[in-house]
C-alpha cells in the first residue's frame, strides 16, 4: 500500500512546479489528470500533494484564528509548529491510506476490473485539491470546496477503476463523507450555512 517506485510508468513529475500544475489540472481538467497522472505504485507525488493541501488548509486556519491547537509547556509557537507537522506528516497520510482501504473494500464487489490500492490513494489525494480553501472562515466556501472534492473523487474512481460515473458517485459516498465531510469539516460548514444539525436530520426522519 505504501510502495514508492523510482521509475514509475506514468505518474506525476516531482517538484513545486509540478505540484502547482497538478492542482490546477485536477480542478479544471480532472479526467485528464486521473487518466494520465495516476500510475501503479507511484504514490509519492500523491502523498506530497495531499500533504500540501492539508498544510495550506491548516495554515489558513491558523492565520484566521480558527485553529485551536493545544499549548505545550507554555510554548504556543512551538506547539503550533509541532501539531501542524503532525497533521501534515502523520495524520494526513494515515487518514488517506485508511480512506483508500475503505474505498477498496467498497469497490471489491462493485468493480471487478478495478485498479490497485495505490491508485486509489492517488485518486483521493488529488480529489482533495479544492480543500486548500477549506480553512477559510466562510462556511459557504468550505461547503463548496468539500462538495467539489467529493465530485472529483467520484470522477477519479470512475476513470481509474472503470465504473460508470453515477455508480462511482454511490461507491464514493461514504469515503467522501469521511474525508471531506468530517476530515475537512464540510459537514460543520454545511450546518453553519443551513442551521441544521444531525439531530435535526434524525428528528425529521423519525
SSE sequence, one letter per element: HHHHHHHHHH
Mean pLDDT: 89
Envelope shape = globular
First CA to last CA: what distance?
A: 41 Å
Largest sheet: none
Question: How many domain modules?
Answer: 1
Find the structural class using helix and strand composition. Answer: mainly alpha
Residue ranges: pLDDT <50 for 5 or more in a row?
Answer: 1-11
> So what's the oligomer here?
single chain
Count of individual beta strands:
0
Radius of gyration: 17 Å
Share of β-strand residues: under 5%
Put simply, the count of helices is 10
What's the helical proportion of residues? Answer: over 70%
Subcellular location: Membrane
Keywords: Membrane, Transmembrane, Transmembrane helix
Transmembrane segments: 81-110
Domain Yip1: 25-180
Explain what the structure shows.
The chain has 206 residues and is an all-alpha fold. The chain is 70% helix and 0% strand. It is built from ten helices and no strands. The chain has helices at 16-28, 30-37, 44-63, 76-110, 117-127, 139-161, 165-171, 173-183, 186-194, 198-205. It is globular, with a radius of gyration of 17 Å. Mean pLDDT is 89; it is low at 1-11.
Short account of what is shown:
70% of the residues lie in helices and 0% in strands.
Provide tags for this entry.
globular; 0% strand; disordered N terminus; transmembrane helix; 70% helix; membrane; Yip1_dom
Sequence-ordered SSE layout with sheet pairings:
Elements lengths: L15 H13 L1 H8 L6 H20 L12 H35 L6 H11 L11 H23 L3 H7 L1 H11 L2 H9 L3 H8 L1
Amino acid at each position: 500500500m505504501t510502495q514508492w517506485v523510482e521509475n514509475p510508468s506514468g505518474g506525476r513529475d516531482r517538484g513545486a512546479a509540478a505540484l502547482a500544475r497538478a492542482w490546477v489540472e485536477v480542478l479544471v481538467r480532472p479526467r485528464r489528470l486521473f487518466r494520465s497522472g495516476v500510475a501503479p505504485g507511484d504514490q509519492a507525488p500523491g502523498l506530497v500533494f495531499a500533504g500540501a493541501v492539508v498544510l495550506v488548509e491548516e495554515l489558513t486556519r491558523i492565520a484566521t484564528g480558527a485553529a485551536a491547537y493545544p499549548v505545550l509547556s507554555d510554548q504556543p509557537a512551538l506547539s503550533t509548529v509541532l501539531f501542524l507537522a503532525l497533521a501534515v506528516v502523520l495524520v494526513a497520510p494515515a487518514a488517506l491510506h485508511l480512506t483508500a482501504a475503505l474505498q477498496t473494500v467498497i469497490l471489491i464487489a462493485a468493480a471487478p476490473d478495478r485498479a490497485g490500492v495505490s491508485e486509489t490513494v492517488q485518486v483521493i489525494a488529488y480529489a482533495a485539491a479544492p480543500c486548500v480553501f477549506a480553512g477559510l472562515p466562510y462556511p459557504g466556501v468550505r461547503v463548496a470546496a468539500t462538495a467539489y472534492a467529493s465530485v472529483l473523487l467520484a470522477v477519479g474512481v470512475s476513470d481509474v477503476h472503470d465504473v460508470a460515473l453515477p455508480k462511482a458517485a454511490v461507491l464514493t459516498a461514504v469515503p467522501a463523507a469521511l474525508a471531506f465531510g468530517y476530515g475537512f469539516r464540510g459537514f460543520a460548514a454545511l450546518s453553519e450555512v443551513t442551521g441544521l444539525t444531525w439531530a435535526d436530520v434524525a428528528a425529521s426522519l423519525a
